[in-house]
Amino acid sequence: MTPTGPISLAARIFAIVGLVVAVVGAIAAVTLRMVDPVTAIPDPFGFTDVALVGFEVMGVAFASVGSLLVIRRPRNAIGWSMVVIGVGYAVGGALAAATFSLSAIGSETATSAARYAGWLTVALTTLGGTMFAVGYMFPTGRGHTPRWDRFIRSCAIAWPIGLLAIVFQPGPLNIFPTIENPMGFGPDLRPLLGVQFSRLVLAGLPVLLVTLVWSLVSRYRLAGVIERQQLKWFALAIAVSIGALSVAGVGAVVSDDPPEAGLALFGFAGALVPVAIGIAILRNHLYDIDRIISRTIGYAIVTGTLGVIFAAFLLSLSGVTATVAGGETIAVAASTLAAFALFQPVRRRVQRAVDRRFDRSRYDADLTVRTFAARLRDDLDLETVRAEIAGTASVAVRPTSASVWLREASR
Fold first, then answer.
1. Quick check: 305 pLDDT over 70?
2. Quick one: average pLDDT of 200-207?
3. With b meaning 16 or more CB within 10 Å and e meaning fewer, what string describes 289-307?
4. How far is CA 99 from CA 125, 179, 277, 383, in A?
5. Secondary element (H or E) of residue 156
6. Which of 251, 284, 317 is the endpoint of a domain?
7. What pLDDT does residue 283 have?
């Protein structure tokens, strides 16, 4: 039931306005880059048009799911935070596109406007970066213990201070190093922290990861059955996002010309986080997560195993066929056929072992059904069969009630 009253009205207004702003920002960003595809300003992270689209998708996803949660769960802070994150990424991307276009014009007025558009881009995308902070209060909207509540409140105080330090730092903008910060004032920290303060922030990603994992593990240990399923959804999505961000972060730290794939991958992978949050909090297909995790791990192991087998066959056959015409082609073809032939046997064996550990309920249900099928071949008594069917259904799918109807034989 959707709550009513002043809180509900404010929630609806906030949700609708936030979603509209995010969608308009995303459309504006993509449209501007299509109409005016000027060269992007070099940045420390490898931001390209593909990454821009990824960030817009992530922004709209956060705003869409967040607005739904704000309306359905207005007292849960997660939905409100997600709307802010979505607006930050979507509108920030639109302002980044505007910065590129204004900088390409070259006039004094356009250059000045580009500096302010770039400054707003930094502010909004930094605001969007709070997506990982959602993990500390997921799924209830607060810390699971008084100590974690105090930690969240401390972060709520420290984060605005860090945001101000980033957006008002004199010198080049953190995302656009060729543009001077038009709002910079105060002491110049570049001699102390380096020219690109954003790289220092990314270098601190491991600290964020450790505390986030600590929080999730601690909450999981104290959680009930439903909350544990919710945490699995979030943990899987956030792990994929952090992995993608790590690619961009490592590229930015170790290279002055980072690869473009990292940031683009993070944009699209980050869209999985709001989807997982929506499924977890609204509890739609909540218990499918065990199967998803099991299949993900299973196929990852199968892929790695077949890759090793392919490489081993290729190395072995390359030496044998080195003196034969077209030997390399023969070795590749034979290795491919060997890997293809082994795919199904390896997949079945690996998936059975993984299901036993990560999808135990489904594994037990399949085992129960197979056992029942084996007994059914020898049972001819209808009453025995009826009892077996009801018992197997109860164990396999755990219904609230079960009954079996058998049509009477016609006279």
1. yes
2. 62
3. bbebbbeebbeebbeebbe
4. 14, 10, 32, 77
5. helix 146-167
6. 284
7. 74
User: The domain that contains 185 carries what CATH number?
Assistant: 1.20.1070
Residues 173 and 246 in one domain: yes
**98 and 244 share a domain?**
yes
Distances 65 to 72, 77, 78, 194, 361 between C-alpha atoms, Å: 10, 13, 10, 38, 29
pLDDT digits (tens, 9 = 90+) for 230-246: 888 888 888 888 888 77
Counting the structural domains of the chain, the total is 3
Instruction: State the number of CA atoms in the 13 A half-sphere of 346 facing the CB.
Output: 18
Q: 0.85 exceeded by the pTM?
A: no
Q: Identify the domain containing residue 402 by its residue range.
A: 359-411
Whether 289 is in a domain gets the answer no
Dihedral angle, C-alpha 234, 236, 239, 243, nearest 10 °: -140
Which pair of tokens denotes residue 182?
């038009």
SS3 180: strand
> For 74-77, which contacts have Cβ atoms below 8 Å and span 24 or more sequence positions?
74/3, 74/7, 74/8, 74/10, 74/11, 75/3, 75/7, 75/141, 76/140, 76/141, 76/281, 77/137, 77/141, 77/142
Same domain, 276 and 304: no
**252, 284, 316 — which closes off a domain?**
284
Phi, psi of 172 (to 5 degrees): -65, 150
pLDDT digits (tens, 9 = 90+) for 73-86: 888 889 999 999 99
**Spatial contact of 321 and 331, defined as CB atoms under 8 Å apart:** yes
- Is it the case that residue 2 has pLDDT exceeding 50? no
Are 313 and 173 members of one domain? no
- Reference 406, options 384, 391, 379, 377; nearest CA is 384
CA distances in angstroms from 411 to 375, 381, 407, 408, listed in the order given: 29, 19, 12, 9
Q: 3-state class of 174 per DSSP?
A: coil
pLDDT higher for 109 or 366?
A: 109
